Amino acid sequence: MKEYAPAKINLFLDVIRKREDGYHDLGTVFQTVDAGDTVEATLREDGEICLTYNEPQNYPLEFDLVFKAAKALKEYANCALGADIHLTKVMPLGAGLGGGSADAAATLRLLNRLWNLDYPFEVLESIGARLGADVPFLVRGGTAFAEGIGERLTFVEPLELPEGAALLIATPLDAVPTKDAYAGVPKSGPDRWEQYKAAWESKMNPPLCGDPIAEPPSETFKQIVNPEMCFNAFEISVFPTHPLVAEMKQKFLELGAKVALMSGSGASVFGIFKTRELAEKAAAAMKPISRYQTVTKFWPW
Q: Which of 29, 90, 178, 233 has the fewest CB atoms nearer than 10 Å to its CB?
């Protein structure tokens, strides 16, 4: 069996407060994208979990989120079965795209089928919450508001790019340690996040007046995903100490992106272009300063 592991970007991300437990309360909008790794598995009757890769990984097996996800699901289900798992890794590490979390989420979905457990998304999400803040969202994917550390999810109608538009994701020749990003990020309080949610709601559900003609999806998208609506508080803490990330965002805009934003705590940047041709030209121009890039779309489309 095989399972795709779509990565994510953040269309909005604010840090509301630091909690007593050391974590931070966030307000963010997750969006899955058509870029990711692939997880494959075959059944083992002896109960063992074995994991291999397309390329050697530079961390111990017990730290791998795929391995952790398999063990967590097996323990939760009290399942006697095992699996030979193979991870084809494409996404860069430490890039703000949730690649490892997406792999864990895909593993939960895959083994749920392989072992005939038939758990609903809600159960897999609860297991995923113990593995990482992004995992619960990535179990289901699409478009969602997330609060707390990312575990409180409100799924909304999945967004689609306007017809002909394309998404470019690029990771500069840099990496941003999550600890460093959080260390300098301002804590905004709830106001900006609450205002953003209210603005989203008003644009998605405009007040009725007479018998209005519904806006096409592309117009609704432009109201929600635009420079005025998109925000990432981590740009404030990351850009001064990681100029390559700031430079990449600026290049996105110079090369024609309608919207450009850093994803997560960095270092990847994404941009939305009016046409695929423009996105591909921008990708070619930035290839020398990128360790990863793809021209793609939202997932699901």
A: 178
